[in-house]
Amino acid sequence: MQRFSADVDLGAIRSNVGRLRDAAGSAEVMAVVKADAYGHGVEPVARTVLAAGATWLGVAFVEEALALRAAGLDVPVLAMTASPRDDVTTAVEAGVDLAVHAVWGLEAAAEAARLANRPARVHLKVDTGLSRGGATAEDWPALVDATVAHVAESTVEVVGIWSHLACADTPAHPSVASQLEWFRSGLDVATRAGLTARVVHLANSAGTLAIPDARFDLVRPGIAVYGLTPGADLGTPASLGLRPAMTLRARIALVKEVDAGRGVSYGHRYTTDRRTRLALVPLGYADGIPRHGSGVGPVQIGGERYTVSGTVCMDQFVVDVGDAEVAAGDEVVLFGPGDDGEPTADEWAEAIGTIGYEIVTRIGGRVPRAYVGGAA
Ligand SMILES: Cc1ncc(COP(=O)(O)O)c(C=O)c1O
Fold first, then answer.
1. Which atom of ligand 1 is nearest to the CA of 32?
2. For a Cys staple, 134 with which of 114, 125, 317, 371, CB 3.0–4.6 Å?
3. pLDDT of 265-318, one tens digit each?
4. How far is the C-alpha of 250 from the C-alpha of 74, rounded, in Å?
């Protein structure tokens, strides 16, 4: 490791996919690898999840799907979000599965199919209560009818019918049962119109692990692939049988001794209370270390826990290490699986009032990813 590194344990990812496959039962697994595989690096992660038995990949945007095709991955890939400016023709040519949330998306897919001279593979999304993507219950019958017409013309092929849960991390939340019911009625509307999909899918990581009724034909886990908990109420990674894959480390850039009463970092939000030693860590908010971690973010140096002292800057932060034997060049672990007492990404999330998803996905492009735990 030079200045810093995000080490990604592909063995952990393999084992997490195994755990998710077990939980999924007879359902297939679509590993969600959007946002550069939640910050872990999409290409090695995609190869690893497929080798571990996932049979689909899920991304947010068409461009992300095309990048997977350019990398030579020819498995089914679903682009889950859609916007009117998407290059759907290239996507249809590349055999990318398109999420359809409204009639305009269907028409765009059908037009692209005519240009590409092959049917567009679509997944019709019904909004069952998240009120984000998908057709509302009111709009759903019209979307189904329009799709039936396109299927008859062979411009679209209905690969999936799907939805997304709002509160899967709280399985007893009343919205879960209500969304399941709504989803089933949406499926009935489609069946009555003569439309059947090859796969029906609803569950994210939390749904896969904790809501058996949400599993249908295919599950779409993201965060659990990377070994973080989908929700604190569901358990820790260890209790869920998951292993965090990313370890973020840096080498201390400078250690110096200062007097008591010295203000530290921007705004002097930390003041030394004794003569002490300060260690400078060359990672900052430009690298995804949350500025909200100022004064609260946990780190480990030489096996000991410390807290970020004062403000996280763009490229660095300071840790008051007292009289510990710490020198420039020593390793700082910001987060990892927690095996050796180091903080975890979930702990960082708790410290700053967010979720582990945000901690790992925001690790920036300046931080090289290093892969351990076997070949992708
Ligand atoms: C539509 C959809 N499905 C699945 C996922 C994966 O969710 P999770 O990372 O909670 O498993 C996401 C992620 O946000 C999503 O937006």
1. 6
2. 125
3. 999 999 999 999 999 999 999 999 999 999 999 999 999 999 999 999 999 999
4. 36
Q: How confident is the model at residue 369 (pLDDT cuts 50, 70, 90)?
A: very high
- CA of 206 relative to ligand 1 center, distance in Å: 9
Pocket test for ligand 1, best of 34, 131, 170, 204 (most atoms within 8 A of CB): 204
Half-sphere exposure of residue 95, counting CA atoms within 13 Å on the CB side?
A: 10
Helix axes 174-192, 140-152, angle to 10 degrees: 40
> Atom of ligand 1 at shortest distance to CA of 80?
1
At 375 the pLDDT is 75
The closest-lying atom of ligand 1 relative to the alpha carbon of residue 169 is 10
Residues with CB under 6 A from ligand 1: 32, 80, 164, 204-205, 220-224, 230
Residue 157's DSSP bridge partners are 121
